[in-house]
């Protein structure tokens, strides 16, 4: 018989609707029951594509004996961390404080007023080497709760007070300087893997925001070693098994140092951030391989992760048919069944396929030998080898499509959608690809039409309903994506929406007394504190996204107050960023933007003119991290109140480019070569 979760819209919660556990969603009903029956609360947090969440669900939550213990002794609450990142953040920090580590599934035991007193991650059903069994743990905690109540309540209150103090602490301000940025680069060098790229050993995460920061540092400091770190990382990642060479996109992380063996889930935010890093690397190096990776990643999202309305799905699971990675693995016999003899020979060399395999007797496809090396070794034309590999890869993909695919979490998350919309818009502009720009616009309109109700932005959308008031990350990410769309399409409606959301963001989330934004607002009244995440983890923090939006609008609207807010947040994190740069990848990009002169570019001219297009083409091919671009006609500029458009007229009655640095402008130019020269001077000027 289904439990209460059957009434929920979250795909993750619905996965647990048939459990024998008497699950409650997060809400007042569960807390009232705990108080009335004098029971502790078991709060279990996970997400739909979490492999170990599935394992624990199968071993414990589907086990009638364990479920009975849970139902008899606890009030059980299930939370989708992607739907309620605020709840996840509070109790994740609590478990880290109690145990020194945390992750998912996150299982936390609370008093009836929501204060944590014990927690952990995955527990096996029975005792296992070094790990207590969940059944024994439940019985012990129930006994302790009732026999040592005063001790439990005192401990829970102390932990809650500690969390409150952390969330309300004012950051110690420090001058932000180029030395801070350079110190961060040196810290990254010390942890960089000079053989395989990336940072640390294993498991190894892509960390695209850190890659972005190094790319920006190369532009700023012209230190080739920073670019070398970027290119080695991106090349090695794209060759490894973490990259889906048939269907496109990237898996969550690699369990090994060489990027070969992934944890097979695919997250929307990874596709957005990784594709953007490859796009910017292409603009710097013009390496066509990077562009191929971008296209394959974005095509995967548009084909497999996009709803009919234009929203982007959250994730694709690691498991299919109960096995992790089964959908992506190949035996040599399967390859031989699908391909002809000539294709088998080349494909097996190219993708490293062997009879013994490289993962549990099967093969994770990776690029073991390049197309160029194949052509040389087989004395074939490069184009011929490329054609054979491309056609064979399509055959393998069609064959793979017949397998049972991993489940998708079709929930739409505003902030993650905005990250993808930004990447699509930037890629569409850089490649002059209308399909990507249209997908970005469609997504933005979908978010504005479906996730804004009575002026209030919401965090998720599933089962045709918006849910949960928006968090800081939603307002900030959406604002940035709308600013990008304005730059690329010149449609003022995107800019006006961005300005409105940024003001709402300041009004609802800015905390003047502590000098940062909180992640929640008064709309999130069902938690005992307002969490404040300052770290850029798998996604940019709400604070770093907010600061970037403020700095961009500060230039467009000449708003010094916006710049001051962003500056205050960055100053509060200056020292810790320089020492722990991988935890602040996007905030370091914000700091770089704050310290570097803004480059304002105005293109005046008819949108359909080949001369206007020639000027825009120069900008498409150039990576300028701190640029603001406005492309419009002379007539539209004359009617605009934007400071950057005041007094702009055509030069020689031709499409004209204006390049400015902190509002100090060079001579207007008509020719692409002149524009290219000005951009080079402005970007690299001290």
UniProtKB/TrEMBL annotation:
Pfam families: Thioredox_DsbH. GO terms for biological process: carbohydrate metabolic process. Residues 2-163 form the Spermatogenesis-associated protein 20-like TRX domain. Gene3D superfamilies: 1.50.10.20, Glutaredoxin. It comes from the Bacteria. InterPro entries: 6-hairpin_glycosidase_sf (IPR008928), Ssp411 (IPR024705), Ssp411-like_TRX (IPR004879), Thioredoxin-like_sf (IPR036249). This is Spermatogenesis-associated protein 20-like TRX domain-containing protein.
């Amino acid at each position: 018989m289904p439990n209460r979760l059957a009434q929920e819209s979250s795909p993750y919660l619905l996965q647990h609707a048939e459990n024998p556990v008497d699950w409650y969603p997060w809400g007042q009903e569960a807390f009232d029951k705990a108080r009335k029956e004098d029971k502790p609360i078991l709060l279990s947090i996970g997400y739909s594509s979490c492999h170990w969440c599935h394992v624990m669900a199968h071993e414990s939550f589907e086990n009638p004996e364990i479920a009975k213990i849970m139902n008899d002794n606890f009030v059980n609450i299930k939370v989708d961390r992607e739907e309620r990142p605020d709840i996840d953040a509070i109790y994740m920090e609590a478990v880290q404080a109690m145990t020194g580590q945390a992750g998912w599934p996150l299982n936390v035991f609370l008093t009836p007023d929501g204060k944590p007193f014990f927690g952990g991650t995955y527990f096996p059903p029975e005792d296992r080497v070094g790990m207590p069994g969940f059944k024994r743990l439940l019985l012990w905690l129930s006994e302790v709760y009732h026999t040592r109540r005063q001790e439990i309540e005192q401990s829970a209150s102390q932990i809650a007070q500690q969390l409150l103090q952390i969330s309300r602490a004012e950051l110690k301000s420090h001058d932000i300087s180029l030395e801070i940025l350079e110190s961060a680069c040196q810290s990254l060098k010390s942890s960089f893997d000079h053989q395989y790229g990336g940072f640390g050993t294993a498991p190894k995460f892509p960390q695209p925001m850190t890659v972005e920061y190094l790319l920006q540092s190369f532009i700023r400091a012209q230190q080739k070693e920073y670019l070398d770190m970027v290119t080695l990382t991106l090349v090695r990642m794209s060759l490894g098994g973490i990259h889906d060479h048939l269907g496109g996109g990237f898996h969550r992380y690699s369990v090994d140092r060489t990027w070969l063996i992934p944890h097979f889930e695919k997250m929307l935010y990874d596709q957005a951030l990784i594709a953007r890093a490859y796009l910017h690397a292409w603009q710097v190096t013009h390496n066509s391989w990077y562009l191929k990776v971008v296209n394959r990643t974005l095509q995967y999202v548009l084909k497999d992760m996009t709803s009919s309305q234009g929203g982007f799905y959250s994730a694709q699971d690691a498991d299919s048919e109960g096995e992790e990675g089964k959908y992506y693995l190949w035996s040599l016999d399967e390859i031989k069944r699908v391909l002809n003899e000539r294709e088998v020979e080349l494909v097996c060399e190219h993708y490293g396929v062997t009879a013994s395999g490289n993962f549990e007797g099967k093969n994770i496809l990776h690029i073991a030998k390049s197309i160029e090396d194949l052509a040389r070794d087989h004395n074939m034309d490069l184009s011929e080898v490329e054609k054979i590999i491309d056609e064979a890869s399509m055959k393998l993909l069609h064959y793979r499509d017949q397998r049972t695919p991993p489940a998708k979490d079709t929930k739409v998350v505003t902030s993650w959608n905005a990250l993808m919309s930004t990447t699509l818009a930037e890629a569409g502009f850089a490649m002059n690809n209308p399909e990507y720009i249209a997908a970005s616009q469609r997504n933005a309109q979908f978010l504005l039409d479906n996730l804004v109700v009575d002026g209030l932005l919401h965090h998720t959308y599933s089962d045709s309903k918006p849910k949960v008031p928006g968090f800081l990350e939603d307002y900030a990410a959406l604002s940035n994506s709308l600013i990008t769309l304005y730059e690329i399409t010149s449609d003022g409606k995107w800019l006006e929406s961005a300005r409105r959301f940024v003001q709402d963001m300041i009004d609802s989330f800015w905390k003047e007394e502590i000098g940062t934004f909180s992640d929640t607002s008064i709309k999130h009244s069902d938690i005992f504190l307002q969490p404040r995440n300052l770290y850029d983890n798998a996604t940019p923090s709400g604070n770093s996204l907010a600061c970037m939006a403020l700095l961009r609008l500060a230039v467009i609207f000449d708003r010094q107050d916006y710049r001051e807010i962003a500056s205050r947040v960055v100053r509060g994190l200056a020292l810790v960023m320089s020492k722990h740069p991988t935890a602040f990848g996007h905030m370091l990009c914000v700091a770089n933007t704050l310290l570097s002169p803004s480059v304002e570019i105005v293109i005046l001219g008819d949108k359909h003119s080949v001369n206007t297009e020639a000027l825009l083409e120069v900008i498409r091919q150039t990576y300028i991290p701190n640029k603001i671009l406005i492309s419009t006609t002379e007539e539209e500029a004359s009617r605009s109140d934007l400071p950057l458009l005041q007094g702009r007229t055509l030069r020689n009655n031709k499409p004209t480019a204006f390049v400015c640095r902190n509002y100090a402008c060079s001579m207007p130019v008509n020719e692409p070569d002149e524009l290219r020269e000005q951009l080079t001077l402005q970007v690299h000027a001290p």
